[in-house]
N-acetyl-gamma-glutamyl-phosphate reductase
Amino acid sequence: MKVGIVGANGYSGIELIRLLQHHPYTDLTKMISHSTSGKNILELYPHLENFVDMSLEHIDIEEIAREVDLVFFATPAGVTKDLIPDFLEKGVTCIDVSGDFRLKKPEDYKQWYKKSPANDQYLQESVYGLPELNRHKIKEAKLIANPGCFPTATLLGLIPVLQHKVIDLYSIHIDAKTGVSGAGRNVNVANLFTEVNENIKAYKVGHHQHIPEIEQVIREISGEEAPISFVTHLIPINRGIMSTIYCDLIHNLSIEEIYQLYKEMYKNEPFIRIRQVGQYPTTKEIFGSNFCDIGLYVDERTNRLIIISVIDNLVKGASGQAIQNLNILAGWEETTGLMNVPLYP
Amino acid sequence: MKVGIVGANGYSGIELIRLLQHHPYTDLTKMISHSTSGKNILELYPHLENFVDMSLEHIDIEEIAREVDLVFFATPAGVTKDLIPDFLEKGVTCIDVSGDFRLKKPEDYKQWYKKSPANDQYLQESVYGLPELNRHKIKEAKLIANPGCFPTATLLGLIPVLQHKVIDLYSIHIDAKTGVSGAGRNVNVANLFTEVNENIKAYKVGHHQHIPEIEQVIREISGEEAPISFVTHLIPINRGIMSTIYCDLIHNLSIEEIYQLYKEMYKNEPFIRIRQVGQYPTTKEIFGSNFCDIGLYVDERTNRLIIISVIDNLVKGASGQAIQNLNILAGWEETTGLMNVPLYP
Amino acid sequence: MKVGIVGANGYSGIELIRLLQHHPYTDLTKMISHSTSGKNILELYPHLENFVDMSLEHIDIEEIAREVDLVFFATPAGVTKDLIPDFLEKGVTCIDVSGDFRLKKPEDYKQWYKKSPANDQYLQESVYGLPELNRHKIKEAKLIANPGCFPTATLLGLIPVLQHKVIDLYSIHIDAKTGVSGAGRNVNVANLFTEVNENIKAYKVGHHQHIPEIEQVIREISGEEAPISFVTHLIPINRGIMSTIYCDLIHNLSIEEIYQLYKEMYKNEPFIRIRQVGQYPTTKEIFGSNFCDIGLYVDERTNRLIIISVIDNLVKGASGQAIQNLNILAGWEETTGLMNVPLYP
Amino acid sequence: MKVGIVGANGYSGIELIRLLQHHPYTDLTKMISHSTSGKNILELYPHLENFVDMSLEHIDIEEIAREVDLVFFATPAGVTKDLIPDFLEKGVTCIDVSGDFRLKKPEDYKQWYKKSPANDQYLQESVYGLPELNRHKIKEAKLIANPGCFPTATLLGLIPVLQHKVIDLYSIHIDAKTGVSGAGRNVNVANLFTEVNENIKAYKVGHHQHIPEIEQVIREISGEEAPISFVTHLIPINRGIMSTIYCDLIHNLSIEEIYQLYKEMYKNEPFIRIRQVGQYPTTKEIFGSNFCDIGLYVDERTNRLIIISVIDNLVKGASGQAIQNLNILAGWEETTGLMNVPLYP
């Protein structure tokens, strides 16, 4: 299958390039970049030598539509809402790694992204590309809204207890930690090495655009409008997200019962690994891979469940999940090109 | 004043040495170490050249008691409970940086430290050395139990709302992140550079010995036995703790009201700095200093207060606070030797 | 082909496991560990879940010889010199990632490793497994001495000018920088996170056992006994080696001539990439891959050539090169299982 | 003494602010910034709360000259060459932390800085502010050119053997490693956390502007024009420089003789510490302090001397040395405000 990448020059873009190199059924034939068109990708990323030798181009929708079957969009917020409809009109399947088509309610996008939302028709058509939740819809989709990195880690941790209705929906506290690559390759004082190294920082407190995305899925599963507490922290690592989730159990469930519930729910999921009782995953254990590893603890003193969920933000949190969605769409084995061992140490 | 350090060869020990070098009224005349006695401290820590040139000695209580007025104990858990009583008998004032005398209930120590507790008489005599809470008691103390690093960051964040009774005591969630120096200089696979670097790890989930310490102070202030949720995370930095605290407000207080409450409560505290509304402290902003910086957010969607409190675990979380306690005890200006600017970046 | 790993529990061991998972023609059927036998590898490394589920065993040469065709040794220095002869006797091909069979002169091993050397017969039989230098000998070998990490980076940088005799052999200065994984997973105060983080350290100054290894290859190529200057530095990264090499040119060669010489020499090498004039490789650009990237500079002011050569110490510097040697031995495509894109960022 | 800082908002600027807070005889009354004037320094650096509460101002030379006695310039290259003459005209003493007045030959500045040089009169008037070399001239200076960070580390390592004429001047190889704060707080893709973390990079190969600065001092001491090899490497740490220097001994000197030579030469220097034979300094051992620590090795195989010299680039490599120069100028004890213990770990 011929594919293209819009926004190939960012970190999600080059992670797509990396993963597509290891994918047997795709042919990457177009790389688009607004800010660096005309340059060869090797000028920006010499580590890609021997793999790709291709220039970044200005966007030309007609031409792309003629040459590729599917486009990945690895663009900043606010770009695809205007761009993707034209691609869809021309019959190109779109996987949007940005957030423009994730929120079904236009007013949510307006409030949290501070931009005008996409056309409602497309918002409703788009499928939220979390395979573990929406695999059947993804198969038929023309437009996939690839989930955000924090929602991926958090929702994969929460879905079993949401679906089994064993937690108080109004008690969910999510304390998330992320590496810096999530911020992209954009120059910004806050992301200088000197500012991030030997530092921990809470950021976007109360304003993170992933809040409504998580709440939307909670609402879809539970039918309830339950606001969450959610604080994100910047950690001096390149890759990796840990979501530490606290929620009140509404029944007295033992850790063994909870563990079995997760094992059962995810028994056929190739990319989810549940740690044994008493073990908790670290981000290094999924580094460079498409896994989501989950650890569980029931605090009997407070009757709360603590869920620790980790992903690589650039893989399961972005480009790997996009390829997983492509595999589902195309009818290929879902793990195609994605079953690599995490890099340790 | 002549002072000694037992456990001078660990990280809290050398941080005491560093701070005492800058303290005008003390004379460090004894350094004791169990594992490295006989060595000059410069063999272990060449960075101290030009400041100290002294050998580490085996412990000899008689001799220490003759030569010094006050001893700092920077020892692992389980050492001072047996050692300090002998020092007290000989009239030596003791500041214990370890956890042996912090928990007033012997059964708490037994449960959380998995060791037999100190003699109850000394447990009751000891003063919990959090100056912002117990300044008056510290003045008269013979034995100070210097608070743990996580309790220091967390309690300084919580005390204003605990004392003003504006939060639901049963809603407190504490998500704590720490640098690696808290683990000391002990060899351990888990603390190798390769294992910690580019990693985030939750540890001691449900079993951290700082849980009962925090709950004890909550109980003392509120009179209630309110269990907390508390998870600690290891972050690839050397120094720094961030405690992100979530709690339900029981009244509808605005962020401005909360901010004023903190500003008022801490207006005379030299080491507490409250960030303006909308600003949150990072650990780098207190690096190497005795400050505790606090940021506040009221989430109106959930009516929860989020408190972000940071300290340097080796300074305000250990050795700096020990010096602060010494200053109070001795009747010196409380900031003596401690008013240094954080190192940035 | 059935293969085993002796020393599977160290970092080179698990890197072999990782790479073998992606190798189509091998079957890893034995994992041996002295210190952790009896444990499942997943207890030590949960990141391997879904890939291997196998216990580490005590060594039993008879049994291993029956069950596997080839063994990788990822053991500390001093182990294989006694162990490998027994394997060879039983017809097992051996690839030794440790240094025991690299030095042809027994007295060199004695001097630099401070241990008694292997039996001379085996020393002479062993083939130094640097494919770019010894590909033809490797094809026929029964015992491969896989090169050290620093020699790999350094020699690949030097070989073209050594073979073309354009440098003064007595002018070679090598300033090497390495990540911490080279030290293995052994507990050691010097490798604690707190000691390595935010630090640069020169180590083994004048005593590094890779000095005679580099000099041996220089001697083999040039016929001269030319001592080198070589200092290694520990850098706070997990993976990666940079060797900065300085040498005096004996002719006035321009940078373009030098560049052409390298391009020509390495034109068929799949894992060597020469940066264009004016560009220099960084270690991140080969992270997780088997590449050696090389940059070149001719300083006309001093008539010196500066060569910057980078590898991932665990891949091209250890386990990746071992697989490359296996591929050559077995007659498979040399890049089999090794052509992965570096992980960036 | 009333002092001002031009360029107070950069990293050298805030390091000056930090050190001046601990200095008993100065009063910081003016902070100037081109890019952030109008802002309070606390908006940019909240860690300074409780120490300074002052706005950054546009430059007004008349006003500054009226209000302060001495100005520190912590500006990018190319600013002070035009600015400082006006300050000197008005009788203000100037300490220039930038490189504009370091090179005595205008053509050197033109070649290496790619800018037009300062007026020759001022170039000749300026005193190169390396106290260990030029203490007597500094006492009388009106304009001090504070040395660069690499030259400081390197020259302090070389001066004893240069002055004693024991090395071949044409054999000097300097391999330098630096933390990222040397690059300032300027936004730049190359200095993003994601690009620097887990990476080693050689930069400005052959073009570093500190090359002529080092060569100038070699020329001044030896009378010879001896070009050096000098390569700088970016290391993922915030602070710290290590200069590894290789040079050929022209006599057969033992390590003990070399060690005695250094001890003797620097016996009265408060900020230079020579490690014992067999010990080498690490950058962490001088972190946050004004020390330059030096280790020495004589390689008898090559008859080369290897010198390892470390400084904190923001302290001895910039702002600390500037304060040291101020102390000398003002006739105060040279260590005033600078004798702080390195922060470890």
User: Anything to note?
Assistant: The CA atoms of residues 244 and 308 of chain D lie 5 Å apart. The first helix of chain D runs from residue 11 to 21. Chain D is about 35% helix and 20% strand.
